[in-house]
Amino acid sequence: MYQKIKGTYDLLPKDTKKWQALEKTIHNVSKIYNYEEIRTPIFENTELFHRSVGLETDIVSKETYDFVDRGNRKITLRPEGTASVVRSYIENKLYADRLPISKLYYMGPMFRYERPQKGRYRQFAQFGAEAFGSESPLLDAEIISYAVSVIKAFKIKDIEVQLNSIGDQESKTMYKAALVTYLEKDIKTLCSDCQNRFETNPLRILDCKIDKDTELLKNAPKPVDYLNKKSKNHFDKLCAYLDAMKIKYAINKNLVRGLDYYTHTVFEVNANLETLGAQNTICGGGRYNHLVSSLGGPNIPGVGFAFGLERLMLALESVNFKGAPDYLHLFLIVLGEEQKEDGVKLLNRCRLGGLFSDIDFLDKSLKAQFKLADNSNARFIAIYGENEKANHKINVKDKDTGKEITIERDQLYNHIITELMNPSQACQTCKEENCDNCGE
RNA sequence: GCGAUUGUGGUGAAGUGGUUAACACACCGGCUUGUGGCGCCGGCAUUCGUGGGUUCGAUCCCCAUCAGUCGCCCCA
Asked: Is A13-168+228-318's fold the same as A328-421's?
């Protein structure tokens, strides 16, 4: 028997309902912030990710899905969204568009070769946003506000926004030098990973989980202490804007992110929910002022974030998020082969009129067809058999009221529509009038 | 890349080195070929992830492999 590839999953109908609801909310919030959707290919030239994400990052050095196509091109399944969006932004010259700022969002599958566990898959979905064209901290603030609004739209409460600034290129370079000097003579006391990072990406030593509590790292210089005037100003303004919007955040001086392209602002959103397990970072992002130019575009700054949608989904389990309930308006029971032509005609009429309708395809007994109707959560059950055919009638049962009546066959559609239009009765679940919560 | 743990029907699961692999739910049929949800009766795993080994005999013991789950690393 064939089985799915390790680290992938099938979304079955009961799950797709939730995903559709999740996606809908994301589209709505994006609209509120005036971001427009962009869809890029799921594979790109390998080189793109090497140049953007960084050769020395774990993502590129050991997690990409690479292959050579029949034309001998080196291809990589995208491990994240920013590189593709930036590529598309440059290639399609979106910077020359009517609006000076491009505000884009995307949603779709990403691929990383990792060991699967809770909230982590080899094919996983991200929702991300990128805003190009302004260095203003106002745009950083908007991006963070946007991310927080998405989370709030799902009524997830226990979140924490962690914020830091690693400064512009100049500050970054200054800081890196200071850090290297500081660590140089004692680097041997740190873990082997850190010793490697010392050579390849010293910033990452800061958030090493193994060594974070050592005196050496506790007393290490922090990026915020090396911000030049411009960078400091940017960070201060951002904080002020967030305060103005009453968005809570915690400054984490050790927060650096795993991708090379960030400058100035970096942030993460953690949710402290049991259902998330160890992977409690649901969103990460930051500013990247030189990514566009380093990929061959004009010197245009950008800022963005990305959500892990599986993790968002896990977080939603904690808040009892449900997709649309399953139901049919009509289940049509047809008895006997001779009645089937009239049956499909009736069914078709109802479907053309927009009623959610279904029918039995397995010549089941009356009893079994009733069961099908129950399992499909049908409100109306219509029965059409020999007697009805002879009299041009049809028998209709309303499960909400329990009433059963016989009507003219041709009135089936009108009858159901009329009944559906009647003012809704008390919610069956909570017995309250006009209940919106139960979704019944 | 490292570590832990699991793998028995459609599902949840019990079980033992030896003959028919419990039980429950679901499903199918009947009681009842025109009124379901309840009840009763009956059916439903030639086989215990896969491959090999030990043994007279393996679902059970051993090895390998694949897969799931969780953690580390990393990330979203």
From this structure: no
A61 touches strand B (CB under 7 A): no
Burial A222-252, CB ≥16 within 10 A → b, else e: bbbebbbeebbebbeebbebbeeeebebeeb
Per-residue pLDDT of chain A in tens (440 residues, 90 and over written 9): 778 899 999 998 888 989 999 999 999 999 999 999 999 999 999 999 999 988 888 888 889 999 999 999 999 999 999 999 999 999 999 999 989 999 999 999 999 999 999 999 999 999 999 999 999 999 999 999 999 999 999 999 889 999 999 999 999 989 989 998 998 888 888 887 788 888 878 888 888 777 777 888 888 899 999 999 999 999 999 999 999 999 999 999 989 887 778 999 999 999 988 888 888 899 999 999 999 999 999 999 999 999 999 999 999 988 878 777 889 999 999 999 899 999 999 999 999 999 999 999 988 999 999 999 998 999 999 999 999 999 999 999 999 888 899 999 999 999 999 999 876 554 444 544 444 444 43
**Where do the domains of chain A lie?**
13-168+228-318, 328-421
Q: Which of residues 131-190 of A touch strand B (CB under 7 A)?
A: none
Give the separation between CA A317 and CA A314, rounded to whole angstroms: 5
CATH homologous superfamily for the domain A328-421 = Anticodon-binding domain (3.40.50.800)
Is the CB of A19 within 7 Å of strand B? no
A130, A288 contact by CB (below 8 A): no
Q: Enter the tokens of residue A176.
A: 């890196």
> Distances from the Cα of A430 to the Cαs of A235, A426, A433, A435, A436, in angstroms?
49, 8, 9, 8, 10
Q: What is the DSSP letter of A401?
A: T
- Which residue matches tokens 């109802």? A350
CATH fold of A13-168+228-318, please? BirA Bifunctional Protein; domain 2 (3.30.930)
ipTM of the shown complex: 0.87
Q: Show which positions of strand B are touched by protein (CB under 7 A).
A: 1-3, 27-30, 32-37, 66-76
